[in-house]
Design a protein that fits this description.
The protein is an alpha+beta fold. The chain is 22% helix and 36% strand. Strands 1, 2, 3, 4, 5, 6 and 7 form a seven-stranded antiparallel sheet that branches. The protein is elongated. The model has no long low-confidence stretch (mean pLDDT 94). It comes from Pseudonocardia ailaonensis.
């Protein structure tokens, strides 16, 4: 089940992110999604330093981008983070990129993520429990 987005990050398209066709380069969408995931984690109380201190770090295992409408210079975009938690070692993250001006979904980034134990270099068996224990606002992650 997909939880409703509990966190959104606002991004303004910058000039150096534009390609020769006048719209956002394909890889920039990944940068926007990555930035939004880290902002979401930080809002939940899980800064990179907090995670490192506890010997874990999120990793991306798979990412797919569906492009729907162009983004152009100076567009304001809201990037959501919707977590789909299961019972295994991974979670799915759906990230709609919505243009502020008219509410158009410009793209959707879908990912599979895990929580890496930095000591063993293996996925944490129960990432939900670990994240719930470390987060100061786990509800932001849909936990």
């Amino acid at each position: 089940m997909t939880a409703p987005p509990t966190h959104r990050t606002e991004v303004t398209v910058r000039g150096y992110e534009i390609d020769a066709l006048g719209h956002v380069r394909h890889t920039v969408y990944l940068d926007y999604a990555e930035h939004a995931r880290w902002e979401c984690l930080r809002a939940a109380g899980l800064s990179a330093q907090t995670l490192l201190t506890h010997g874990v770090m999120p990793i991306m295992l798979e990412t797919t981008i569906s492009y729907r409408h162009e983004l152009r210079y100076d567009d304001v975009v809201h990037v959501g983070c919707e977590f789909e938690w299961g019972t295994g070692k991974t979670a799915r993250i759906v990230q709609p990129l919505v243009r502020d001006e008219d509410g158009t979904v410009a793209a959707e980034v879908r990912s599979v993520s895990g929580l890496l134990d930095l000591g063993s270099r293996k996925l944490v068996a129960d990432p939900l429990t670990t994240l719930r224990e470390l987060a100061s606002a786990p509800e932001i992650l849909g936990l």
